[in-house]
Amino acid sequence: NAGVTQTPKFQVLKTGQSMTLQCAQDMNHEYMSWYRQDPGMGLRLIHYSVGAGITDQGEVPNGYNVSRSTTEDFPLRLLSAAPSQTSVYFCASRPSGAITGNEQFFGPGTRLTVL
Amino acid sequence: GDSVTQMEGPVTLSEEAFLTINCTYTATGYPSLFWYVQYPGEGLQLLLKATKADDKGSNKGFEATYRKETTSFHLEKGSVQVSDSAVYFCALSEGTGRRALTFGSGTRLQVQP
Known about the structure:
The structure holds 2 protein chains of 2 kinds.
Chain A: E1 4-7, E2 10-13, E3 19-25, E4 31-37, E5 43-51, E6 54-57, E7 64-66, E8 76-78, E9 87-94, E10 105-106, E11 110-114
Chain B: E1 3-6, E2 11-14, E3 19-21, E4 23-26, E5 32-38, E6 44-50, E7 56-59, E8 62-65, E9 75-77, E10 86-93, E11 102-103, E12 107-112
Parallel strand pairs in B: 2-12
Antiparallel strand pairs in B: 1-4, 3-9, 5-6, 5-10, 7-8, 8-9, 10-11, 10-12
């Protein structure tokens, strides 16, 4: 299993540009989520999904859209990038139910810079 | 709401020193508690977890005990190595509808030879 994969690894955007961060998992996990990591602030939840066709907002959703058309994929879209969205983005997944104590599996991250 | 507070870093230790990284939490229910580790340039990996009070999680020589009475989950290791240099995150999850992890701000550990 490849686990959770993310592309691209690095990206530089200009203010106002749009882009999609890709995330895929091959573990048949129902739950997927996006976090952003900023210095001194830990990781904060952007959006999450409990299954195909179901998404919801997290702690910091503004400026980001998501969709979940398949169990495997959970892309994150920036419609009009802003410098405040400069961050490292992590995708995570976990199986449904609470049998693992809600342990999540993380991708390697995408480092995004918005100029 | 839920929150996690970790000691600020960086923590700098010599090889074979004893490590403690403090973590306390605030939660309305009975959360599961985690320590994640992030090595340079990589994503987060689960280090250990505990799902109920008095449970001890352990892995790779690291230990943490779920203390409900003090709402703490301190990370310890008896003898650190240079390879332990990383950022350590304490996190909790209440298993509610959102089922997300609430993270502390992270503690950078630097181990010198």
